[in-house]
């Protein structure tokens, strides 16, 4: 059986750290915690789990801190987590089984990363990341902000999921943007990936016009990961929508088709454009396509499952209602309810369609 070093970088994480470590401490063989300047009880909590603590002076470089943490690991494999990540009970069992059965020819294991869920327990935003890597391969983290672990070799995709449970309390939400702005002011040359993530930070802070500029710079490089390219099209559409330019938002969605076959998200965005123009047959075409598309099991990009599950069905219910096809509208509303069984809007729709169908039935009987 392999051994595992858990490596973390932390700062002022007393709110989250106990929750994180309590669910994984008995699975890993070593815990390495690198502190970048805590002033609370973070180090004390780490020590209570027999973690080895190290200090690292913060230099606005996440990759540097993570590489330092990795350099202190001593076990066969390295697992990395953030303090506000957790393993739910079922994933603890999956990780234990993975540890017992993993063969040493595997260089990296990817795991799902669940970033958010809705009130009905559906994962609404997720991606897949390289989480468990062979220490002897000396894989390195790249990038001061939105860093990534550069891996190669024999990669295995697992069904283990890490769940992100941030409370956003005491987080410096402007930190990443300030790092990029500092690099920009210093005249640093940005890679395509930098351009993309700087644009994301600008969008998230509602600097929409500048975000559009940086998304365009990124796309014009004609480089970068395909999933980042598609995400840039999506986020460009959002920026234009926020600025009240519906046509540019629509064209940004269409732009995605230059790079890849249709994705459910863009089908929904295009469908919405035609729904707004009362072109229901065309809207129906795109929403139906969204329900039929599937991602490959080894998909690594960001994924919002609503675009392929309840959302297109709900919109199909709207479209069919507008053209008087109440039976089909009701069917799609019921399919949407399968994903969100307590949704008040869908329940109201359910009552509405039942009344409509009853009225039609009564009319048929009296004619």
UniProtKB/TrEMBL annotation:
A Pfam family per the record: Glycos_transf_2
MF terms in GO: transferase activity
Protein name: Glycosyltransferase family 2 protein
Domain Glycosyltransferase 2-like: 5-112
InterPro entries: Glyco_trans_2-like, Nucleotide-diphossugar_trans, TPR-like_helical_dom_sf
Provenance organism: Paenibacillus lautus
Keywords on record: Transferase
